Amino acid sequence: MAAREIKILSLSFLLIFFGFNGVQQYMTTFFSEAGIVEVGFRSLILVYLSFIVFNPFSVWLISKFGSKKCMLLSSLMYVIFILSLLTKSSWAIYGSSVLLGISASLLWMGASCYLIRVSKEDEYGKNSGIFNSFQSFGSAAGVILLGFLVSYFSFNVPFLVFSAFPILGTFFILTLEDVRIEQKKNQFELIKKSITSKTAIRLSSIWFVANLSYGFVIGIIPIQIKDILGASFVGPLSFLFYALPILLSYFFGRLSDVHGRKIMIGFSYLLMVLGLLFLSVKIYFVLGIILLALNTALMKPITYALIGDVTTKDNLEPVSALFWMVQNVAVVITLFVSGMFKESINSLYYISILAIFVSALILLPFFKLELKEIKNKISQEVFSA
Fold first, then answer.
1. Phi-psi sector, 194: left (phi>0), alpha (psi -120 to 50), beta
2. Most buried of 11, 80, 230, 266 (most Cβ within 10 A)?
3. So where are the chain's domains?
């Protein structure tokens, strides 16, 4: 059953994010060309901020109604958001951005919890790798095809066409088996204890630093590529953030099942530091992009699998909520600061490197523990009286 459900879930996300990520990757250039680049940054900030605020309610909804129903409802919002961009009305875009953030909270929380619930413990990394490879393939194909269509039809017609793909993804979600367990405890109380769990908070720094660079990828890096190399390079270089996960996510996920998550996290931190350093030097700019793209291929399946490693079936949703909130806080901070300080980009990269070193120091004590010990510590803190 697990193999079938993982494939269907992965295919649905391939289609949804073929449409959405294709459009998202061109949002800042779309708004820049329209002379309202600030709307693009504010829209993205609203998406991820709404995700954060609504996250606790997502836990309650997913626990009550199940991941499948929540994913079904939320996937259709991606259509409405893409269509709102065509209006170029700031209020329509801001409104749909808030609704998209709420829907994204349900969709991604639902998907990650569903993936863990249908997977065996020794296959978390492998199944996360399959899921990420499919989703990345859809995103990569969307970015490349949209770039090709934009060169011929500008933005309006391609955006309209791409709005149909999330609908196709929704049909595949319909065929998933509804997998959930009855939650007898108060979910809001569990969320409260999860976000105050010292162990979970320290561990969440992994999700924070992993998503700092993602904020740059969808925000400032496309504009930087355009300024340094020209608009024609935005698509091909952005494509790397999807192409490398397609090729390597399954490999890295499976490797982490065999050799453990800790060594992979250490390697990821090294890639992030080097990638951000190279981005700050114009002559090595492309190499920096390649290293960050490689880190995306490594870190996405690891963070999904790690959620399964450190949670139990009873606290999966509330603890996941903390990790999802933290990673979206990182994206919001990056987008907000990028929008304000577009003229001092290198300083942003150096501050991110400092954050990575701080996270590494926080995590050092955990590297001495087995993952089961970390799971037990979190469980005790969440379920303490």
1. alpha
2. 11
3. 2-178+187-382
**CB half-sphere exposure, 243, CA atoms < 13 A:** 11
**Under 8 Å between Cβ of 195 and 325:** yes
Burial of 342 (0-12, 13-18, 19+ CB in 10 A): middle
Comparing CA positions, the residue from 69, 125, 75 lying closest to residue 99 is 75
Alpha helices in the chain (DSSP H): 2-24, 27-33, 37-65, 67-75, 77-85, 90-118, 124-153, 156-162, 165-174, 187-194, 198-203, 205-218, 220-228, 234-259, 261-279, 285-310, 316-340, 345-363, 371-382
pTM of the model: 0.80
* Predicted local confidence at residue 270, as pLDDT: 93
Nearest to 322 by CA among 210, 193, 179, 214: 193
Using the 8-state DSSP alphabet, how is residue 140 labeled? H
CA diameter of the chain: 62
Q: Tell me: the pLDDT tens digits for 152-190?
A: 777 778 888 888 899 999 999 999 888 766 655 666 677
In the numeric block, which tokens belong to residue 17? Answer: 């994010």
260 conformational bin, left if phi > 0, alpha if psi -120 to 50, beta if neither: left
Nearest Cα to 141, choosing from 16, 298, 291?
16
CB atoms < 10 A from the CB of 351, how many? 15
Give, as one character, the DSSP assignment of residue 293. Answer: H
Superfamily for the 2-178+187-382 domain? MFS general substrate transporter like domains (1.20.1250.20)
Query: Given CA atoms 86, 91, 92, 93 in this order, what sign does their dihedral have?
Result: positive
Residue-wise pLDDT for 145-155, tens only, equals 887 887 777 77
Residue 231 has pLDDT above 90, yes or no: no
pLDDT tens for 11-46 read 999 999 999 888 877 776 777 676 776 777 788 778
Q: Is the separation of the CB atoms in 109 and 135 below 8 Å?
A: no
Rg (CA), the chain: 20
SS3 315: coil
Find out whether 166 and 6 touch, Cβ atoms under 8 Å. Answer: no
Provide the residue type at 11 as one letter: L
Cα–Cα distances (Å) from 81 to 14, 47, 84, 103, in that order, read 18, 10, 5, 11
The amino acid at residue 13 is: F
